[in-house]
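Kindly inspect this chain:
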Amino acid sequence: MWGKIGYKIALLAISCMLVAGCTSGAGKKEEQAKSTLKVVYWDESYFYQQYGDLFTMKNGENIEFEVVSTQGLYNNQEGKSYVEAFDEFIEKEKPDVLMLDSSNLEKYISDGKLVELDTYIEKDKYNLEGIYPGLIDMLKEIGGSKLYGLSPSFYGNAVLYNKDLFNKYGVDLPHDGMSWQDILDLARRFPTEGDEKTRVYGYGDNYPVQLDTLVSNISSAEGLVDVNPDTMKVTVDTDSWKRVYQLAIDADKSGVVYNPEGDGGFSGGSMEEYYQSQPFLMGRVALTVGNPYMIRNLKEAKERLKDYKPFELGIVSGPVDPADPTSTYNTSMGEIFAINADSPNKDAAWEFIKFVNGEDYARVKSRSDSNMMSRMGFNKDYEGQSLDPFYALKPKISKSYRSWDMLPDNFYSDYNMIKTKEIDLVKNNKKTLDEALKTIQAEAQAALDKGLKDKEANKGKESSSTNSASGDSSVATEESTSGE
């Protein structure tokens, strides 16, 4: 009798291995069931190009993506600011993974809407040591010593220079930790004579460098702010701002900065014409402040232009804040990925964040991405020239974003008109710089007060304030916040 029972048990066991409907088989199948991860990103196809396809190739198809695009938020028809529209979008869509920047990362942390990542990092023994320490420090500073998000890449600048021009004119080579004063002092040691469309310039950029652009670049690197976000007061009539304006005006007058009269820069045409419009790429500028994209352009120009004359590139760290030459305000995080505290798929969300901030992802994307990878050691060099200067300085958190969404839509256009008018008077010796700064502060404050009053009166009716501050990249410091 036991033999018959044993036979039946054995037959049943074999059947269970063959038939998917058995209990053990069903359990195994359930473990391999696909889960859907809802991700916020600005464009679905680009998400897959940047992240989704690589993740799937590495991790299989057990995790599928549902990408909710933020593109429509820039043109919302209800008169909301982008911040308001984004918050409502998140509340409605309830994504698992959020794509944030520094400003809304801080806001979402303080509102308790994000998952602390430290527990996952400790559990998986996830290696943070290979990530640019300055970025981790920045993220922890925003999170009150805890991590709530990670960024696979960052935007950074360094001082690029043409070694051949420095050697030709006998000028000392740049050094690490260059301030704008250092950059422009070196630029003045190059000749200024010759036809402005063919001559050599000490300093230049991809486009002609207008005076207001130079002021903005210098003030940004030194951590100055033109509007105090705590008091909503204009803060340009200070010694620090006067020094920045004077440095820019003197450089502009000296003729060492590339800014040919009537040249608006590249406005369309072939790729060859695009490369030829950039004086640094064409060997006519000694110094520039550039990013990895400019270095990539150097490679492409050599390949595409028949009569291109290559030069030896040098890279050093900078521009720095002279008050703290080990740090920079010119480094910012790219897309910061975080986990929604209300997500039912937190573990899957962490798997995604872990992957896109890992070594395998950095190894692949370092070959094609224009930004620097947060994982160090993968963006190695350009023709033997190390890219380490992009990682050399400690990033400081830009505080400018604190005022961007608080300002009236039209403030910066009014402000820029006021600045242009007053600085032209200084350049033409019709006003002193002290007088101009007092007028800029007074008139800009009046424009700001009026705009804030109108904004409050029209609350809920005004048009989207997206990128209201894009015309000025100044950032805050403790000194400028106090009004100096």
About this structure: DSSP finds 19 helices and 17 strands in the chain. Residues 433-457 form the longest helix (25 residues). Residues 1-31, 462-484 have pLDDT under 50 and may be disordered. The radius of gyration is 27 Å.
